[in-house]
Write a structure and sequence with these properties.
Elements (H helix, E strand, L loop, with lengths): L7 H10 L4 E3 L2 E7 L3 H18 L4 E5 L2 E6 L9 H11 L6
Helix pairs in contact: 2-3
């Protein structure tokens, strides 16, 4: 998978496919609100499995029942297709934000 930076137009196209994600400080982010801390941990574990399989790891912040994920390809210095591919896989988990 390519680590080449996406253009602004390509980022807009990818955001249209992953509308739950927003750009914040050069990263794509999404916050999930879950039933409780246990559900938040379960989501983090599922995301961790996807991340390990993809070889691409989000920044994760857990605050009781809220999980904030942030993706950026640090090695490329910005957003790449890797970020949006993992975001789409995370969306497929079916958790409500």
């Amino acid at each position: 998978m390519s680590d080449s930076l996406l253009s602004s137009a390509e980022i807009d196209q990818q955001l249209a496919k992953t509308p739950s994600w927003k750009i914040v400080n050069g990263e794509i982010t999404r916050t999930f609100a879950l039933a409780d801390f246990r559900a938040a941990l379960a989501l983090v574990n599922k995301v961790g499995e996807l991340a390990e399989a993809a070889g691409h790891h989000p920044d994760i912040d857990i605050r009781y029942n809220k999980v904030r994920l942030a993706l950026v390809t640090h090695s490329a210095g910005g957003l790449t297709k890797k970020d949006f591919n993992l975001a789409a896989q995370i969306d497929s988990l079916g958790h409500v934000a």
